[in-house]
Amino acid sequence: MKVLLKPIVSQISVEPPASFEDCPGVPSVTEVDDLLVSCIGQMAVTAGSDLLWKPLNYEVLMQTRNELVRSRILGLRIIKYLVENLKEEYLALLAETIPFLVELLEDVELSVKTLAQDILRELELMSGEDLKQYF
């Protein structure tokens, strides 16, 4: 997984070609994005170890600092996937995740803010803590 981690996560910041939609048989940008989220998310679930989750989580979180809105949203969608699939086990990554989510709460894009809020809410429910104390 370590060998594949950076090349696959780097796909988050790759901008799709403008005339992508005219090619028959080629998946849409939405389909590619969905597959990327599933692929990276399943890498973590399958790894089954926080020793592997930590670098993956960090690389994905770093993508949320990208200037491209699509990259920030994809990064957040992957974090949401991890939270939903790793459940309580994701709480081991909470300390490194909170600062990124706090930054994203102040993003100029409403869709990014909203997704960050959803993830924080989910983490609060899972942990039973008010995470605002860490802001």
SSE order and pairing:
Blueprint: H1 2-9, H2 29-47, H3 50-63, H4 69-86, H5 94-104, H6 110-127
Helix pairs in contact: 1-3, 2-3, 2-4, 3-4, 4-6, 5-6
Describe this structure in words.
The chain is mainly α and about 140 residues long. The protein has helices at about 1-10, 30-45, 50-65, 70-85, 95-105, 110-125. About 65% of the residues lie in helices and about 0% in strands. The longest helix is centred in the first third of the chain and has 19 residues, at about 30-45. The protein starts with a helix and ends in an 8-residue tail after the last helix. The model has no long low-confidence stretch (mean pLDDT about 90).
Q: Which keywords apply here?
A:
135 residues; mainly alpha; 65% helix
From N to C, what is the helix and strand string? HHHHHH
Strand element count: 0
Low-confidence stretches: none
The separation of the N and C termini measures 32 Å
Silhouette: globular
Largest sheet entry: none
From the helix content, strand content and strand pairing, which structural class follows? mainly alpha
Separate helix tally: 6
Strand content of the residues, in percent?
under 5%
Summary, kept brief:
By secondary structure, this protein is an all-alpha fold. The protein is built from six helices and no strands.
